[in-house]
Amino acid sequence: MSSAARRPAALAGVLFIVATVSFAIGNTLLTEALDEGVRNGKLLAGVLFQIVCGIAVVVIGVILRDLLGPAAPRQAAAYLGLRLLECATIVGLGIYFLTTVDALSSYDATIYAFTGVGGLILCGLLRTSGAAPTWLTTLGLIGYAALLAGVVTEFAGGVELESTAGFLFLAPGSVFEIAFPVLLIARGLPRGVPAAGAAASGSA
Questions:
Q1: Are 143 and 120 in contact (CB under 8 A)?
Q2: Which end of the chain is more exposed for a tag (fewer CB within 10 A), N or C?
Q3: What is the pLDDT of residues 35-76, one digit of tens each?
């Protein structure tokens, strides 16, 4: 892959890490602030970290749509759509928390639902385009399916995803969301999937 094509892939990898870290920090700050029931700097910081996560996932969606869209345009567009919905949900919940200072049951599971569906679409897109090794896409499919199972379990009144037991639902997907960004940063798209511009020029 050319250096020009590797740069956006590497950026997407960095943003995966930014999204994961910012969501974790924001979630912790929000939980603490909402437990205190006070509108303070901790609450604002938590919302801002969550919004950083939302912006990051949208940019990831745009980059991967542009890079992988030539191989599977509908899947790429669907993935970007899920990322946009995830961002909108994060922003909407942030506004709710700032205006009400009221904890919302299973708000994190609501966001994880978008993450899980979007992740399944992403792994299918990676398989269709040949952009990632089979073992990695299989891990992702298992991980995001487990995440969605955890979301259903929490909404049904079972194990909470943020609990120790709930981590079992998060772990496989977490491994994917570490391995895939590292792959993007280190190697770009490993099987030489062309960027959209390259695909267009090649077909001209």
A1: no
A2: C
A3: 888 888 999 999 999 999 999 999 999 999 999 988 889 999
